[in-house]
Amino acid sequence: MAKHSKSIPGRGLRVADQIQRDLSEIIAFELKDPRVGMITITEVQVTADYAHAKVFFTMLSEKAEDIKNTLTGLSMAAGFIRGQLGRRLRIHTIPEPHFVHDTSTARGIQLSKLIDEANATRAKDAED
Fold first, then answer.
1. Considering the entire predicted model, what is its pTM?
2. Which of 2, 4, 28, 103 sits at a 20 to 30 Å CA gap from 121?
3. DSSP per residue over 21-54, as a string?
């Protein structure tokens, strides 16, 4: 008797990783929406039933207008993207992608700058 797919350890993580790789290719090479520029898929979280996938992405531009345009373009292309995923993935349910701008990189850069400033101030105080 075959085991149920939920009993395979880490299957959800493997599916999410495969979706991340496929989405990167689809968005880079097949999506023709001018609102969607160069983005990086940073993480994909898939629900237990594989019905939904939360897709986190970053961009070079951190302008609010660019982020809004990209989110709009990705949301409008979600059906196309899901269809392309369906051609690539061999799972029963193809997840509905939900795109979320990932601010962790920008936040990390801000924190790094603050740490550098604090270290510079500390070094300056030590010299005096």
1. 0.80
2. 103
3. HHHHHIIIII---TT--SEEEEEEEE-TTSSEEE
Reading the block at residue 76, the tokens are 């409008």
Q: Cα 97 vs. chain centroid, distance in angstroms?
A: 10
Query: How far apart (Å, rounded) are the C-alpha atoms in residues 20 and 92?
Result: 18
Distance CA 19, CA 95 (A): 9
Q: Rounded to the nearest 5°, which phi and psi values hold at 106?
A: -65, -40
* Measured distance CA(69)–CA(118) in Å, rounded: 36
Per-residue pLDDT reduced to its tens digit, 82-93: 999 999 998 989
H or E element in which residue 57 lies: strand 52-59
- From 70, 66, 86, select the one nearest 31 (Cα to Cα): 70
